[in-house]
Amino acid sequence: MSWSAKQYVTFEQERTRPARDLLAAIAPMQARSVIDLGCGPGNSTELLVEHFPGATVRGLDSSDDMIKAARQRLPAVAFDTADIGQWNETGPFDVIFANAVLQWLPDHATLLLSLVSKLAPGGSLAIQMPDTLHQPSHRLMREIAANGPWASQLAAAADTRTEMADASVYYSILKPHCARVDVWRTTYHHPLASGAAGVVEWFKGSGLRPFLEPLDEVQREQYLEQYRNAVEQAYPALDDGTVLLPFPRVFMVATR
Questions:
Q1: 9 has pLDDT over 80
Q2: 82-111 burial: b if 16+ Cβ within 10 Å, else e
Q3: What is the model's pLDDT at position 10?
Q4: DSSP E strand stretches across the chain
Q5: Residues 18, 127 contacting (CB under 8 angstroms)
Q6: What's the whole-number average pLDDT of the chain?
Q7: Which three-class secondary structure state does DSSP give residue 183?
Q8: How far apart are CA 254 and CA 171, in angstroms?
Q9: What is the pLDDT, as a whole number, of residue 205?
Q10: How many CB atoms lie within 10 A of CB 32?
Q11: Residue 204 buriedness (CB in 10 A; 0-12 / 13-18 / 19+)
Q12: What is the pLDDT of residues 140-160, one digit of tens each?
């Protein structure tokens, strides 16, 4: 299962809110060059275009489907398919924006310093990463993968996400190279009206992908049925059937 723009934007309002909060933390500036890494279907890029009028804004994403959707959404913006882990442009950029993407890449220490080196003086690196690996939602993904008939097929699925470091680690990496570093963690509580089924649909657009992609259609349905039943126990619905999904995220804004 490749990245699906349609699946991702099913919860566009909820997925865009952290991008808005991240953007609001960037110090005011007259940005000329802005790049959106992991731009997805262009929802975060749209915020950047509105926030930095007059700037050249571009978007990169590894998914052809996401780039196609982004181009349809913002035809005046340049979007390119690219592996962010291999991205080697030197810049300089006034803003490098990475919303919900760097958690898929390894070696954050090297990666963050590489991104900072591409900033113009006074430029900002703005990052948001879901911090969900130890939430019930993701623990259950791993448990079901390891204990089902598909265990060998899914042996590597849990390794596609990078373990998050403590805030002090990220701060210590960035501060010697930046004039200002701000790191914080926010837990959102997303109301999903369709209960456990809504939780499954949410993660089908992100965290479940590595677990579903190696499976055939029948296996996927079996895996998802087990996951849905486990989620129903882990996230009890409120009286109206809504599940309030806790979703922690780590934010960083580093200004050179």
A1: no
A2: bebeebeeeeebbbbbbbbbbbbbeebeeb
A3: 63
A4: 33-37, 56-61, 78-81, 93-99, 119-130, 180-192, 243-255
A5: no
A6: 93
A7: strand
A8: 9
A9: 82
A10: 15
A11: buried
A12: 999 999 999 999 999 999 888
